[in-house]
Write a structure and sequence with these properties.
By secondary structure, this protein is α+β, with helices and mostly antiparallel strands. 22% of the residues lie in helices and 23% in strands. It has two domains: 92 residues, MutM-like, N-terminal (N-terminal domain of MutM-like DNA repair proteins); 124 residues, Helicase, Ruva Protein, domain 3 (Orthogonal Bundle). It binds a DNA duplex through helix 5.
Length: 245
DNA sequence: ATCACGACCTGGAGGC
DNA sequence: TGCCTCCAGGTCGTGA
């Protein structure tokens, strides 16, 4: 496999998994944790194109298969064409010491979003609402699609400065983030091109997006044409009428 | 310290 | 057909 791999652990770390049984799967933000009956857990981030799938051991390995863990006559495979993903082994109980996990804020769905804390964070910053929602240190788990969706739902302009966020707007934003993520999960996730779930199925949520990828089409609330802009290098979609600046 | 930008990668889509 | 450019769900390092 050579040097061109996704971020993967040294073989010595992977060897700690030999004989282990995966006992449960957890998630914090965009990171998955696969606990085992040993003193180690598997940490996975799928990046943009990562997949974690169970295959029969006899199935051919597709290109960009970076990690293979044998499971009897089956295999757990980590496949990632763009190599933006991560696959690592962490000591049990030391998960929060891992640099990727240490900086994460509370998970968006794990418990109710702390609105006063969100408001306080917003007051201290000079960036945009879009950047705030995408900042994994503030709330973990919201990606670029759902940032646009949540801001539309909360009727907030992505370019609005965070320190101007009002308490009612923060409340709307917190509710919108949860609503958008739960809706996406109900619909099996958003497949634009690559995403498939653990069983290999595409998600249907792209059919239900309000604004993301819908520039020039009518806002579902007010029929104004949705606009696309670029904020910090990321595509951003919004309604210029009903998302107040 | 905070913020915005480019880099990191591959592959698919569309123009010519 | 083929070659080119642009675009993509994320994060990280850099320099202002």
């Amino acid at each position: 496999m050579g040097l061109h791999m996704a971020r993967t652990p040294p073989r010595a770390a992977l060897r700690k998994l030999v004989g282990a049984q995966i006992t449960r799967v957890r998630r914090h933000g965009k990171y998955l944790l696969l606990d085992t009956d040993r003193e180690v857990a598997i940490l996975v981030h799928l990046g943009m194109t990562g997949r974690l799938r169970i295959h029969r051991a006899a199935d051919p390995r597709v290109a960009h298969t970076h990690v293979v863990l044998g499971l009897g006559d089956r295999e757990l495979r980590f496949i990632d064409a763009r190599r933006f993903g991560q696959f690592d082994v962490v000591a049990r109980g030391k998960e929060r010491d891992h640099p990727a996990l240490a900086v994460l804020g509370p998970d968006a769905l794990d418990q109710a979003i702390d609105v006063p804390a969100l408001l306080a964070t917003a007051k201290d910053k000079r960036t945009t609402l879009k950047a705030l929602v995408l900042d994994q240190r503030v709330i973990a788990g919201v990606g670029n699609i759902y940032a646009s969706e949540a801001l539309w739902r909360a009727r907030l302009r992505p370019t609005q400065r965070t320190h101007k966020l009002t308490a009612p707007a923060a409340q709307r934003l917190a509710a919108a983030i949860r609503e958008v993520l739960e809706r996406a999960l109900d619909n099996g996730g958003t497949t634009l091109s690559d995403f498939v779930d653990a069983d290999g199925a595409a998600g249907e949520n792209a059919d239900y997006l309000w604004v993301y990828g819908r520039a020039g089409r009518p806002c579902p609330r007010c029929k104004t044409e949705i606009r696309r802009s670029v904020l910090q290098g990321r595509a951003t979609y919004f309604c210029p009428t009903c998302q107040t600046p």
